[in-house]
Amino acid sequence: MYRRFLTITSVFALLALSASSAFSQRANYEEAPISYSVSAPDNRVSQLQTQLDSGEKSLTFEEGRGYLRSLLDALEISPVSQVMSFSRTSLQNDLISPTTPRALYFNDEVHLGFVQNGLIEIAVRDPGLGMVFYTLKQTNEEPPLFRRQTNSCLTCHGAARTRNVPGLLVRSVYPDSEGHPVVSAGSFVSTHRSPLHQRWGGWYVTGTHGDQQHLGNFSLATSKKPKVVDNTGGQNVTDLKERFDTSPYLTPHSDIVALMVLEHQTDMYNVLTQASFEIRHALFLQEKAISEDADAAAVGRELLTTRLKKSSDLIAKSLLFSEEARLTAPILGTSEFGREFTSRGPKDSSGRSLRDFDLRTRMFCYPCSYLIQTPAFEALPLELKAAVGSRMREILTSSESLKGFEHLSQEDRQAIIEILQQTKPGFL
């Protein structure tokens, strides 16, 4: 009788996984096998802390900017990645305004926020935990201490807008003259699928984009959204010095190309984390079922197969820029971000890279995300990586475009295959 009870319990648990997303609520990533808040992180920031504690490395404190410049060097983040947000939608709302925006800097793994007279905020990609959040006090203490944050950050960075996993988002709002979001006007989460006219509300944007419209460099005169938003003065802005004092920041730019990359990267990482957590949870339940009953184990294998198919298709769509918003005019940034980003490669024998920009009709020349070549992708469960590889082969080698991937021409697919075969051998 007891064994029969185990069988029924195990089967129902696995059926529940099939019926809905395994991580539809925050509590799920706080449970095994993720156990987010109580698991020890292992990432670039935790490793740097170990080096600081041992004296192997040190950070230099600078008046006005604190550890900012030294920390960017230690984490290999270029200052030209700088973008700036003036909406009061983050941890340090009281210190952020249109005249004192928050500056963000990023590379493939780490995102760092700098606020004048405030904390440094850091979000870092962790192989086992998704995004992990830290703050660093801007005081000259030895050694500097990164304080891990959970509850205070996960309210926004672990809910529906981040696919219910610890992640990041680029939020577009309608700010008033002081940077407060006008809640009644609504907001958007910006990704590479978002039309430009919905992007960058509450952000400064430097760069040219022809007659395309966006919400950057703009605030509402009142606390109500007008029927028609006139942001003529916020378009094709190349200099922010008349809007606020840019001297406290490392560059005077909030580059439009960097913003586009940031949008893609934050959403792509949320997709990878969601899929990884789903599969790890399915594997965990399957392992429990195997130890309890053969019937439950059979159900577990079937559900794992279903989950792998769904997750691999979701990842493939994001990697291959399915539903990417089309550009109708050339995009040109104001900083060296585009050149630096492209130079990081890797390149194939013809000099092609997944980091090569198009910026005329779409973001990249070869529409496959560069994040497929990062440690974050390699950290996915083996079963999931294999399923993604199989789905990518199916899409890229098909004699005709498959549903959802009609944007990929035969030339696109062939170029992506060739680049991946040389820069990520064994994947396809």
Describe the protein's architecture and organization:
With 428 residues, the protein is of the alpha+beta class. The chain folds into two domains: 38-258, no CATH class; 275-423, no CATH class. Helix content is 35%, strand content 11%. The protein has eleven helices and eleven strands. The longest helix is centred in the middle third of the chain and has 37 residues, at 256-292. The radius of gyration is 23 Å and the shape is globular. The N and C termini lie far apart (49 Å). The model is unreliable at 1-27 (pLDDT under 50).
Alpha carbon gyration radius: 23 Å
Major pleated sheet: 7 strands, antiparallel
Low-confidence spans: 1-27
How many helices does DSSP assign?
A: 11
Number of domains: 2
Q: Mean pLDDT, nearest integer? A: 91
Element-level helix/strand string? HHHHEEEEEEHEEEEHHEHHHH
User: In order across it, which strands form the biggest sheet?
Assistant: 6-5-4-3-2-1-9
- What's the total count of β strands? 11
- Briefly note the structural class of the backbone: alpha+beta
Shape: globular
N- to C-terminal distance: 49 Å
Question: What proportion of the residues is helical, as a percent range?
Answer: 25-40%
Question: How big a fraction of the residues is strand?
Answer: 5-15%
